[in-house]
Amino acid sequence: MSVPKKERILVLDGLRGLAILLVLLFHGYYIWFDYYPYKKLYGENILFKYGSLGVQLFFLISGFVILMSVERTDRFWKFLKNRWIRLFPSMLICSLIIYATAHFFHERPFGIPPLKSILPGITFINNSILEKVFQTDFPVLELSFWSLFVEVKFYIIFGALYFSFNRNVALGGIFLIYLSALGLQLLCLGNVLHETSWMKIYIGSFIHFGWFAAGALAYIYFYNREKKYLWMIVVTMACSLLYVIKFQDPIMLVYLVVLSLIFYFALFHKSFGAIFSTRFFKFVGFISYPLYLLHENMLVALIIKLNHHFSQIPYFLLPVISCIFIGGLASIVAYILEPAFQKGLKKII
User: Fold this and answer.
1) Which alpha helices (DSSP H) does 108-191 contain, by range?
2) What is the pLDDT of residues 25-39, one digit of tens each?
């Protein structure tokens, strides 16, 4: 297998930048309208309304990157260690920042979190699972953390299948898990089954695994341009899109198709991919992980604060200014705190 070209990796960084920008638009202009001073003023903007689907773009990227990672690693536990060192430092740092600043950002939609709300994030275990295990509540620190819980399940299951068997079994396994979650979802929607709390956890954990499979197939096709892999991508993507049946929203489906096409065109069409290799997209992509962890409640609180103290600022600029501030904080984490923490962990583990 040939060594990946450097610019392709930069394209992935740029695509991460696009993904987090979409999520920021969603949280800054649409979903928290009860808290915004501008309420539903931007509620009909399609770019903002469906910006949360940037998370699915993150999942596609993860499928590509994780298959690349396991193929460069010789042992399962080494792979998990590398993933943990990659994820844990920023999660701990950002969780502590969120907890420590919560009283200042008291306008947070989720209120002031108790100390125990940090546990789901730093263990990468769903709040609902911890609540069932410990028979106590674990208030949500940041709702955005849900996607990290999904990703970690993917790392563990995909890595275990890959190192226990082979790549094909790993890919087939995660796709079958997705299909099982989709099947359960459809049966519950059709009132054939009653959705229990454990079913809800299962569906929420695995309904997005199809995106990881589609991203991993993109990695294979990137190095091996056999048509069979291209057709596998098409079939996998088509199946992955079926989960939107739940929402009965054709615009959401179109939005997801467009995002998927952007991902594949950026990878396989050099001139189009150059858009996401620009300095801006690469920078936003580089800080995207801590920015994703920090942004949601802090963003809404900052919008409210800015409007209260500087009412002359146009409504449209309130999220922009807030994101610049949070982006600066995320840059400190990404460029300074996270690398230092990771370096220390690598010395002791």
Assistant:
1) 119-123, 127-134, 146-164, 167-189
2) 999 999 999 999 999
Say how far apart CA 226 and CA 127 lie, in whole Å: 43
Q: Are 296 and 143 in contact (CB under 8 A)?
A: yes
In Å, what is the CA distance from 99 to each residue of 61, 90, 169, 284, 315? 29, 14, 41, 24, 28
Where do the structural domains in the chain lie, given as residue ranges?
Answer: 6-348
- pLDDT at position 9, please? 73
Token representation of residue 3: 């060594």
Q: From CA 239, how far away is CA 41, in angstroms rounded?
A: 35
CA distance 264 to 280: 20
Residue closest to 215 by CA, chosen among 172, 263, 168: 263
For the segment 97-121, what is each residue's pLDDT rounded down to a tens digit? 999 999 999 999 999 999 999 999 9
Instruction: Provide the 8-state DSSP code for 114.
Output: P
CA distances from 293 to 40, 76, 142, 152, 315 (A): 25, 27, 7, 15, 24
- pTM > 0.85: yes or no: yes
- Segment holding 266, helix H or strand E: helix 250-268
Q: How far apart are CA 184 and CA 202, in angstroms?
A: 9
